[in-house]
Amino acid sequence: MDQEMKITDSIEDKGLLESSVRLKPHEAQSYRKKVLWVSWFSIVITIILAVAAFTVSIMRHSASAFGFAFDATLDVLSSIIVLWRYSNAAAVHSAHREYIACVILGVVFILSSLCILGKSIHDLATRLLPEVDDFLFSVSIISGLVCVVLAVMKFMLGKVLTSRALLTDGFNSLVGGVMGFSILISAEVFKHEPMVWYLDGTVGVLIGLVILAYGVKLLVDMVPRVLQTRNYERFE
């Protein structure tokens, strides 16, 4: 483990990611193309899911649906950032470009979490009750399944390319999947136990806090690294 840490530190000192010694050039470019395809697919799918979730949140007064819609919007933004990250073929192993992408993701995460928290707390304060129907169930199930599949694909590619930005994008998709299923669970609970009306808003608050914490951690971890690698911009 100590030897691996020394190797990783030595690589980062040169402004490169660990993937630069793990992958051959043609392998790295092959995985880069896969990342671009997954990112474009994610953007198209999550835009559709975001529109559907916003519609549900407005029509059915669902705080968790609103939270999912915002998370889907965040997923679109994070996938766009990943597209920028891997748009330059020569920068596939660039640590500086990687860390900049992570810092931008951190800022986006924090802003989105504040919106989710604000909406959820407002719904709890005003005792806004969700409305339950088949449309809500359909959107939550489809959203949950699609987001989990996207998360798995992004995690696999992120692990191979040792990309924190791609892993973060995968984490966001995973959160979207959890929120998709939480819409279904909270709606089903409310249907049978109307006294537990606050579950929907509480889930929205918890998700907002998770996204906020992750965004803050990204900034704390990555801002110093951006400054350390700012001299390695030859890939740009």
Automatic annotation (TrEMBL):
It is found in: Cytoplasmic vesicle; Endomembrane system. The chain crosses the membrane at residues 35-59, 65-87, 99-120, 135-153, 165-185, 197-220. It is a multi-pass membrane protein. GO terms for molecular function: zinc ion binding. One of its GO terms (cellular component) is synaptic vesicle membrane. The keyword Zinc applies. It comes from the Eukaryota. Its main location: cytoplasm. Keywords: Cytoplasmic vesicle, Membrane, Transmembrane, Transmembrane helix, Zinc. This is Transmembrane protein 163-like. It comes from Solea senegalensis (Senegalese sole).
